Sequence to fold (202 residues):
Amino acid sequence: SKFIVGLTGGIGSGKTTVANLFAAQGITLVDADIVARDVVAQGSVGLKAIEAHFGAEILTPEGELDRAKLRQQIFNHPDEREWLNQLLHPMIRAEMLAQVEKATSAYVIMVVPLLFENGLDRLVNRTLVVDISPELQVKRTVKRDNVDVSQVNNIINSQCSRSEKLAKADDVIDNQGEISSLKRQVLALHQHYLQLSGNDNA
Ligand code: ATP
Fold:
C-alpha cells in the first residue's frame, strides 16, 4: 500500500529526464519498459511460454527472444497479438507492483509510456503527465534518435492525444522550457507528493 505516482507522456516528452530528477530526490523508480524486457529475459517464465506457443524459431541462436520475428508473427494477426498481451500484461503488472512493495522511498514513481492506453492508470494513486507540443516532440526525438520526422509522427499518432492525456492528468509538468524550469516543477511536485503520501516532514 505504497503511494504510487504514474508518470507518462508521449514520445520525446521528457519522461526519462523527469524520472531522473525524482530519483535524484531519493525516490524509487519502477520502469515499465525495463519490466517488460525482464519478463521475457532469457530463462524467464514469459519467454518459455512464448517459445511453447510460437516454437523455437521465435528465439535467436543465442536463445534470446527474436523481437523482429515476434513482431512479424503478431503483425496482422490480432488473435496472436491478443494472446501475447494476455500473457505479458498480467506478468508486467505483477512485477511492477512487486517492485513498488519492495521500495523504501516515501512514494514511488512508476514510469509508464502507455499509462492511459494500457489502462495502467488504474494501478496508481495519481497521474503525472509530461506535456510538450507535438512539434517539440518531433524536434527533440529526431535530435536524440536521428530518425525520420514521419516515423516520429506515426508514433505520436498511435499514442493517446495530447488533449486526452491532459484531460486525464492529475498533475502536469510543462517541459517546453529550460531544464531549470523542469527542475523547479519537479521539486514542487516532490513536496506535494511527500504530503499526499503522508511524509511531509522531509
Ligand atoms: P521516449 O518516450 O521517447 O523514451 P522520453 O519521454 O523519456 O522519451 P526524454 O528522453 O527524457 O523523453 O527526452 C527526450 C529528449 O529531449 C532527450 O534527448 C532529452 O535530453 C531532451 N530534453 C528533455 N527535456 C528537455 C528540455 N527541457 N529542453 C531541451 N531538451 C530536453
Observations:
- The CA atoms of residues 37 and 139 lie 27 Å apart.
